[in-house]
């Protein structure tokens, strides 16, 4: 991690908050790789799947992006959220860990690996209303655009955006409360 | 779902907007002050000799304590609700109000004959003080806990306790305009207990209500 990374990522995030989707995708991919490197190094015993923590962190970053001060560096904000989500994941599994803030400096970006186990996010997705679930799946797993998703279900683009937004917020909330399945 | 797929969904939601947390905190502070003012005016209201009392040092000192507490707690809670924000200076600032009260207590002990210490400390309003500061502060506390949910506190219990101190500082500022017990000995004892009740409620709220 260098000062140049920090400046570039902050720039991307500012552009994303202003509505630049391309900058946001770029930001999220780079953050995902950094958070993955951080989480993998922290999880030395089994029990917690690093990629679940990466996904929870990305969702939290998304639904809490209004908490970032645009004049502050973005990486300390990102790592504070990742650390919180990692501790949360350990706590849910009955473990207590202490995470040293200074370790962040040694983090390296890492690519995603395929997983054999089912992801927490899939179970959280199952808990959504049918309308929200189908919209979130269409945009994510099926990779459709907002317009394509609207055409597929015969609803307006606004309705797609609302369902997507509420669906993502609901998944993030479930993660926050440690609930992953259908009630 | 793969992480790349999740990113597609997050990216498609990039245009959704939420009010920046720092602006939302100022609105919440305004709303909390209005709620506290309404409860105060509908219940006990200011003391009848408010204008005359405003010329005495002891009466005015109460507002210095409570306003300093509210201002320092407001700075700290804004930092605590933002992940990764430095909290050291705001944390150190929390010392200011207790320090001022301690200083006033020492001055008061020098100013009063020892025989009066007990009556000044006990005063005549301690039950009203311990009842109405939490009552005026409970609405603001609810607003501040709701704001912590809107934010992202990585130390929710601490943040909740600070929400209680902030609500307490605000409520005590109003209550001070009602109370006839102006001695720092009274303030140091009963205001502290009343505000501690709110801080405890806030910590519990932070533990069970502030999840993200």
TrEMBL record, chain A:
GO terms for molecular function: DNA binding; sigma factor activity. Residues 31-96 form the RNA polymerase sigma-70 region domain. InterPro entries: RNA_pol_sigma-70-like, RNA_pol_sigma-70_dom, RNA_pol_sigma70_r2, RNA_pol_sigma70_r4_t2, RNA_pol_sigma_r2, RNA_pol_sigma_r3/r4-like, WH-like_DNA-bd_sf. Residues 120-170 form the RNA polymerase sigma factor 70 region 4 type domain. Keywords: DNA-binding, Sigma factor, Transcription, Transcription regulation. GO terms for biological process: DNA-templated transcription initiation. Belongs to the sigma-70 factor family. ECF subfamily. This is RNA polymerase sigma-70 factor (ECF subfamily). It comes from Mesorhizobium sangaii.
TrEMBL record, chain B:
Keywords: Membrane, Transmembrane, Transmembrane helix. The chain crosses the membrane at residues 24-44, 59-80, 92-112, 124-145, 157-177, 189-210. InterPro entries: NrsF. Signal peptide: none annotated. Pfam families: NrsF (PF06532). The keyword Membrane applies. It comes from the Bacteria. This is DUF1109 family protein. It comes from Mesorhizobium sangaii.
């Amino acid at each position: 991690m260098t000062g140049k990374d920090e400046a570039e990522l902050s720039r991307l995030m500012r552009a994303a908050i202003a509505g630049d989707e391309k900058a946001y995708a770029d930001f999220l991919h780079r953050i995902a790789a950094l958070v993955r490197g951080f989480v993998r190094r922290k999880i030395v015993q089994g029990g917690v799947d690093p990629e679940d923590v990466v996904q929870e962190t990305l969702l939290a970053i998304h639904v809490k992006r209004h908490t970032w001060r645009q004049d502050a560096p973005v990486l300390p904000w990102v790592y504070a959220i990742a650390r919180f989500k990692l501790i949360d994941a350990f706590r849910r599994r009955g473990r207590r860990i202490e995470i040293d803030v200074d370790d962040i400096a040694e983090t390296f970006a890492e690519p995603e690996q395929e997983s054999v186990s089912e992801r927490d996010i899939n179970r959280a997705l199952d808990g959504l209303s049918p309308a929200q679930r189908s919209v979130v799946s269409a945009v994510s797993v099926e990779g459709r655009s907002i317009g394509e998703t609207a055409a597929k279900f015969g609803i307006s683009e606004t309705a797609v955006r609302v369902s997507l937004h509420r669906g993502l917020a609901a998944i993030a909330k479930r993660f926050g409360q440690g609930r992953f399945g259908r009630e | 779902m793969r992480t790349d797929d999740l990113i597609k969904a997050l990216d498609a939601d990039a245009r959704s907007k939420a009010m920046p947390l720092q602006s939302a905190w100022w609105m919440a502070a305004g709303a909390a002050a209005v709620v506290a003012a309404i409860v105060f005016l509908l219940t006990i209201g200011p003391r009848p000799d408010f204008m005359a009392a405003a010329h005495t040092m002891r009466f005015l000192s109460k507002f210095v304590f409570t306003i300093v507490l509210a201002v320092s707690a407001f700075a700290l809670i804004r930092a605590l609700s933002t992940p990764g924000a430095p909290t050291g200076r705001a944390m150190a600032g929390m010392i200011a109000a207790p320090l001022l009260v301690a200083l006033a207590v020492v001055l008061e002990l020098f100013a009063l004959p020892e025989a009066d210490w007990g009556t000044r400390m006990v005063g005549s309003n301690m039950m009203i003080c311990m009842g109405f500061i939490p009552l005026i502060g409970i609405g603001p506390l609810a607003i501040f806990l709701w704001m912590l949910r809107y934010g992202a506190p990585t130390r929710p219990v601490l943040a909740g306790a600070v929400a209680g101190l902030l609500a307490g500082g605000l409520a005590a500022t109003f209550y001070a305009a009602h109370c006839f017990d102006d001695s720092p000995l009274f303030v140091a004892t009963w205001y502290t207990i009343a505000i501690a009740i709110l801080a405890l409620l806030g910590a519990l709220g932070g533990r069970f209500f502030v999840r993200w």
